[in-house]
Amino acid sequence: MIQIKVVCVGNLKEKFWKDGVDEYLKRLSKFCKITIVELAEQNKYQDIEKIKEMEGKEILNNLQGKCYLLDIHGKELSSEDFAKEIASAALESSTLTFIIGGSYGVSAQVKEKVPNKISFGRITLPHNLARLVLVEQIYRCFMIQSGSTYHK
Predict the structure, then answer these.
(1) Among 51, 53, 62, 91, which is least packed by CB within 10 angstroms?
(2) How far, in Å, CA of 21 to CA of 24, rounded?
C-alpha cells in the first residue's frame, strides 16, 4: 500500500477544517496510508527570510520518497492528469510527500530540493483550505483510478 505524507507548516485551528480533512483521511484509508505532519510556524522571527529558512529546515527534515511542493507557480494539472501523476509516481516510490509551505512560502533550499511543483491554480489559497483541497484531490485520484462515479 502506498504511503502518502502531507507536510504542512501550521495547524488547523477551526473544527470545520479538521472535520473536512478528517473525512477525506478516513476515505483515503482504503487506498493508502496517509499521514499529516504539522510543523510549527516560526512566527517568533521578524525577518521573513529567517522564517522561511527555519520552516524550510523542518520541511527538508521531513522529505521522503517522491516529493511535490504546492506552489502557485507550479504545474497546473487537471484531476485526471493528477491521478495519472500519482499512479506514475507510485511506481517509482512507495512514499509520496506533499508540502504546503508557510504563509510566506518556502525557502530557496526547499524549492531547489523539490523539483516537482504543482498548483491548484493561480489563486492564493489559505493554508487550511489548501490542505483540504489537497486531500480531496488525492482522494479523487484514487476514485478516478478505480473507475468510481465519484469523479464525474
Answers:
(1) 91
(2) 5
Q: What share of the chain has pLDDT > 90, as a percent?
A: 91
- What pLDDT is recorded for position 43? 85
From the list 97, 111, 106, 104, the residue with the least C-alpha distance to 64 is: 97
> What is the grid cell recorded at 121?
491554480
3-146 maps to which CATH number?
Answer: 3.40.1280.10
Dihedral sign, CA of 19, 121, 100, 142? positive
Closest CA to 130 of 107, 152, 98, 108: 98
How many C-beta atoms lie closer than 10 Å to residue 68's C-beta? 22
For residue 69, give the 3-state DSSP assignment: strand
State residue 44's pLDDT score: 85
Q: Please tell me whether residue 45 adopts helix, strand or coil conformation.
A: coil
What confidence score (pLDDT) does residue 149 get?
87
Summarised one tens digit per residue, pLDDT across range 31-56 is 999 999 999 999 888 899 999 999 99
d(CA 105, CA 49): 10
